Amino acid sequence: MTKTLVVGLDGASWELLDPWIEAGELPNLAALRDTGTWAGTRSCLPPVTFPNWKCYSSGKDPGGFGVFWFENVDLDAGEITVMNGGDYDTAELWDYLNDEGQSAGVVNMPTMYPPRDIDDLVVAGGPDAVEGEYRSISSGYTSPPELAEELESRFDYSVHPDPLLSSNDERGAEVEAILDLLEKRFEVATTLMDERDLDFVHVTLFYLNVLHHFFWDDEPSLRAWQLVDEWVGRLDDREDLNLVLMSDHGCDATQTEFYINEWLAENGYQVRDTSVDAVLTRIGLDRENLLAVAKRAGLVDTLARVVPESIQQLVPQHDGVKRDRKLEAIDLEQTKVVASGQGPVYVNPRFDVESVRESLMADLREVEDEHGPLFTDVYRGEDVYNGPYVDAGPEVVVDQRPGVHVNDGIGGGTIQSGPDRWAAENTPYGIFAASGPDFEPQGELDRISILDIAPTVLAAHGCAIPTDMRGEVLPVFSEDPAVGERAPLSIDDALGSDDGDAVEDRLKQLGYME
């Protein structure tokens, strides 16, 4: 049986890569497409790290595992909490490989913190593996735990770059630190695969998409992709390896920031309450300004250590409050609707949910900018999700047009603007490419679902496909794998414990929960 390496390229899209491929900047990616199989992919909604890395690895949409975005919104209980890897109720493709007696390694995988045991190893990745708001973690991100020491001593490995990129103006040490991290991801994944004779390895390049967000198609992103391209050439030359490239979602240049909760308030769906954040915002005191000052003074680590977390949380962000702080800024008894960022929208069960939802969907479909409607569609939650957790999900899901960033900040005062912090925004359109001894070159396929990748990898390893995976085995094999179906595994006992506050902090700094 041939080994498989899956390279997860966070935020990769052919829209970004095609001009560089045509210009000869990425010759190995061009060669892989010419000699292998490739396609565009469609992500689950919302097209975000949480939940789409788990959509890939589980073969399910969020209705199948219960995580719909970085936060869980329960308006009935009046609670919003940040999600982590322990909140996903699902087995993943490496669990099924293990169940068939095959070894697997997972390196730098988002949605895997806190790390859990598999046979052989897990290295949790950003943005959710964190320790404090402005510091990278130094331990606790691997399974087995002692693997962290080996990674750090042998590879000088770290989960997050230092210094951390936090603005479009930082093109020096911050970019170099990311490029160094990407190189080490490849080194760790390939070295451990060979030394431990692993049957399967997945490695994610999460900070690749951080470069997309801040720079889109500018030089820092191109430099990162040239590094990736060099590694693709090395890996594609190996005759003992099935190579799969994929992304959790795509990206495109940001045209419009849409502050959905500000729009909800303006249109009568949300009633505001006075909060300390609103006062601080009015006088220009926000987290982005303070972080910039702290970085210039070299005091980031010092302030992170000495300023209590509860005090840090009181400082609002430029575009308003997020997560559970949103509920402090609204009168929930009178508020009909609260939105997360980038897609999910929740109707307060204190009101007539169906009538509110009907009028809300109609109103959202009318929202436009100079380029046209902001949303390619507006859905009922049950029309895009499947599985046991649909009822816990959002009542409405917007499919943001490529180039639109749906921002969930409350209190910033703006409804629409041009690009704010991010030069590029997520889209549902990612990439897939495959080559290797077990794959028959097919050229370009029609667009596939991100849910198709896990069953296809399992089929490549001769494993039966769990009946709760919603994807299909892709027609990429030189011989029909004829693997059949199997009963799903339960993973409840293997999932980690809660560490939601730490996860929130890292998400905020990176801009995922601005």
Automatic annotation (TrEMBL):
Transmembrane segments: none annotated. SUPFAM superfamilies: Alkaline phosphatase-like. Pfam families: Phosphodiest. Coiled coil: none annotated. Gene3D superfamilies: Alkaline Phosphatase, subunit A (3.40.720.10). InterPro entries: Alkaline_phosphatase_core_sf (IPR017850), Phosphodiest/P_Trfase (IPR002591). One of its GO terms (molecular function) is hydrolase activity. This is Type I phosphodiesterase/nucleotide pyrophosphatase. The lineage of its organism: Archaea, Methanobacteriati, Methanobacteriota, Stenosarchaea group, Halobacteria.
